[in-house]
Design a protein that fits this description.
single chain; about 20% strand
């Protein structure tokens, strides 16, 4: 079965500086990682270790879910958050573009 799985000899996965986004973003980075781990287990070629380093928006629940599938999960220097702890605008540096963006077209030669 391992011939149908990409990188069948992959046993250790190191992930650095990844934003594990909130489902509301339309991205599901954590769920994709979990699905990959489950998929490989189903084909009897599991990932034995996942090392998360300096990753953002990792919740304790996510780490625990990953540990149910992967033998060794390490989360070093990760920002662990619960949904209630996230102020999205402040954390990502968003601001009101309409209030701050002024386009002066007086120099346009049209």
């Amino acid at each position: 079965m391992s011939e149908s799985v990409m990188a069948p000899s992959l046993r250790v996965l190191r992930i650095s500086d990844v934003f594990f986004s909130i489902v509301a973003d339309g991205l599901e980075t954590f769920n994709d990682l979990l699905d990959l781990a489950i998929f490989r287990c189903n084909y009897d070629i599991p990932i034995d270790e996942i090392h998360l380093t300096e990753c953002h928006y990792v919740t304790e629940k996510q780490v625990e879910r990953l540990k149910e599938v992967v033998v060794d999960v390490e989360c070093d220097d990760c920002q662990r958050w619960g949904i209630q702890d996230i102020d999205r605008d402040e954390d990502f540096g968003y601001y009101d573009y309409e209030a701050d963006f002024r386009y002066d077209n007086s120099d346009d030669e049209w």
